[in-house]
Amino acid sequence: MLRFLQSQQKVRLVSARVLPCQAVELNFSKIPELNYNPMSSIFVNVPKISKLQWHPFTITSSSNLEPEKLSVVIKSEGSWSRKLYEELSLPSINHLQVSVEGPYGPATTHFHKYEKLVMFSGGSGITPFISIIRELVHMANDSDTTNRTPQILLVPAFKKTLDLGILDLILPVSGTNHDISHLKLKIQAYVTQENGLPSLGTENQPLFRTIWFKPSALDAPISAILRRNTWLWLGMIVVWSFVISLSSVSLVTRFYIYPIDHNTNMMYSYTVKSALNMLIICMSVATTVIIAFLWNKKRNSAEMRQIRVTDGPTPMTSPGTSPWYYNADRELESLPNKSFTGCIKVNCGERPDFKKILMEIEGSNIGVLVSGPKKMRQDVAAICSSGFSKSLQFESISFSW
């Protein structure tokens, strides 16, 4: 019931990044109090495409690094996502109505307990790793956790060189005030179906676009269903639902059923009474939930209006200006004078040799995360369980909705 009420709200879509590899990043506004763990997900509905279809997507942002933004990456791999990409590719678009449900995710994460992290991904499987990297950027800049931030080796595999553009989404669209050089990150990207990077200046290259949407008074930042003190509110809903239903059943029985039936069960059988009691209980729960939801919505509407709204032009840049497009060993940069400690290396025309990569990693506690096709997960799991290194801790991330 609570999730249904949340899904009826229209949320504020701040910006979108449209990549030449037919992927888009949607950046929503959210309240700073809404926290979630990396690898969480949300359900997205775009009424202009379909009023009934809800699709789950992995959140790529970090609630610590970006307290007022929530981002998802959507790859055009179906009819719904293709229509969304085509809609955002229109030059005249300035607003898109969107509803979300969630976020849902793990209660805790333990990737920070490792000395080093090796993350293998295939295609769009890189999206949960983007959220992990952004979270670790925050940890690396926090004095309390900087010494516990693991070193990262990201090994993404793509079919075509255009898919490398997803690496541009590792950092937020608006940049970050954190010093990203504190995070020790290396990226070994693989392009399996092409033998070389396109040369700069190639004609008819698709454009890398960043769209800033106009704000609407009907849209609101994404917020928790019951905002602060969620567990307290849930407890109150349970208690008051019980009180209201018990009181209602007592009143109906005493002043409606008894004067007619006089406990003979001739007019109202046990089946009818049970059905009536169930109806009263459902109505009591629904009434309590709606009151709690509307109370929180009204109480916090003033605060939600104070969320900073960013609006700007729609810049368009060529993919040739993307960091990965210069050369295979260029340092990954997002802002002037700010760069990752590691560098990015692109290997074309080959697949990653999982065993060789893992054998080159030194350490006593190494986390191995895999997100991608079933075959990739099985191959890496077989290597980690073969016993050649006891320091490897395998974890699979699958998308089985």
Automatic annotation (TrEMBL):
It comes from the Eukaryota. The keyword Nucleotide-binding does not apply. PROSITE patterns: FAD_FR. InterPro entries: FAD-bd_8, FAD-bd_FR_type, Fe_red_NAD-bd_6, FNR_nucleotide-bd, RBOH/FRE, Riboflavin_synthase-like_b-brl. It holds the Pfam family FAD_binding_8. Gene3D superfamilies: Nucleotide-binding domain of ferredoxin-NADP reductase (FNR) module. This is FAD-binding FR-type domain-containing protein. The lineage of its organism: Eukaryota, Viridiplantae, Streptophyta, Embryophyta, Tracheophyta. Keywords: Membrane, Oxidoreductase, Transmembrane, Transmembrane helix. It comes from Deinandra increscens subsp. villosa.
